[in-house]
Write a structure and sequence with these properties.
Strand content: 15-25%
Distance between the termini: 29 Å
Structural class: alpha/beta
Number of helices: 10
Order of helices and strands: HEHHHHHEHEEEEHEHEEH
Number of domains: 2
CATH class of the largest domain: Alpha Beta
Radius of gyration: 18 Å
CATH architecture of the largest domain: 3-Layer(aba) Sandwich
Bound molecules: nicotinamide-adenine-dinucleotide, zinc ion
CATH topology of the largest domain: Rossmann fold
CATH superfamily of the largest domain: TPP-binding domain
Number of strands: 9
């Protein structure tokens, strides 16, 4: 069903996607790191994804944190600094406009931990992978929000019980927040259209949100620089930058 291989974002494909969205009252959007790339936040898999020659898969895990919490925290401290300087781009802004139009009919499930969607004005956001601005105690589980960059001391410790704090994100091998994931899956299976943007759709179970819409026979629009595993199955696959294509899909 997808566009021809390499099918770029030609005007007719954009028009078809736009018509699907215009007709939809219930829309689910699934976003990944690509949506924040144009804000200067590096993706894991693209260029700029390496940090001191460590791969994210070696740092974003409970095992890495148990082995070397200071190393893992210095990586997060660097990422918090990068994200702290980033501002929402036209892709984030377009999704906030779509929500303003649809109200409760809109749901944004994001794998991003940067909160740039919220900064752009999105409110109905479900953070499938947590937030980089949240610190969670490994002892008493207390959570707090802290926007300081750099953090005053690494690794940070809980003021209540003295145990190590960890980033409030979901690491490789950990479960996603069940309520957020469940809501996203249910909404995807019953929506009028799903938009999957800036995600390689290989990280499960988040990618399952797009698959749930496909299985239920819902129209799916993909926006990505490169083809993904989903490209051949979606209704319209648009190749290009989310910062350019999402505004064209949503309009002013
Ligand atoms: P990912 O698997 O979602 O891959 C990024 C995708 O975005 C790729 O398919 C790439 O082709 C596409 N892309 C890149 N720039 C684009 C652009 N301008 N327009 C359209 N598409 C573009 O993400 P990942 O980087 O492999 O990270 C995996 C997980 O790590 C994420 O799901 C998230 O939890 C976390 N992460 C979060 C952030 C963030 O919050 N901004 C950044 C990096 C990683
Ligand atoms: Zn504690």
């Amino acid at each position: 069903m997808g566009d021809e291989p390499g099918g770029a974002a030609d005007d007719s494909a954009v028009a078809r996607a736009r018509a699907l969205l215009d007709a939809a009252r219930r829309v689910v959007v699934l976003t990944g790191a690509g949506v924040s790339a144009e804000s200067g936040v590096p993706t894991f898999r693209g260029q700029g994804g390496l940090w001191r020659s460590h791969r994210p898969e070696e740092l974003a895990t409970p095992e890495a944190f148990a082995r070397d919490p200071e190393l893992v925290w210095s990586w997060y401290d660097w990422r918090r600094h990068t994200v702290g300087q980033a501002r929402p781009n036209p892709g984030h802004e377009a999704l906030a406009r779509l929500e303003a139009r649809l109200g409760d009919g809109f749901l944004l499930a994001t794998q991003n931990v940067d909160r740039l969607h919220q900064q752009a004005g999105s409110r109905r956001v479900r953070e499938l992978h947590g937030s980089i601005w949240v610190l969670r105690c490994t002892g008493c589980e207390r959570e707090r929000e802290d926007r300081a960059t750099p953090l005053p001391s690494l690794p940070p410790r809980c003021a209540a019980c003295g145990a190590l704090e960890r980033p409030g994100v979901v690491w490789f091998g950990e479960s996603l927040p069940a309520d957020a994931l469940g809501e996203a899956l249910r909404a995807a299976a019953t929506c009028d259209a799903l938009v999957v943007a800036g995600t390689s759709a290989v990280v499960y179970p988040a990618a399952g949100v797009a698959v749930a819409a496909l299985r239920a026979g819902r129209p799916v629009i993909e926006v990505n620089l490169d083809p993904t595993d989903l490209s051949g199955q979606v209704t319209v696959s648009l190749r290009g930058k989310t910062g350019e294509l999402l505004p064209r899909l949503v309009g002013a």
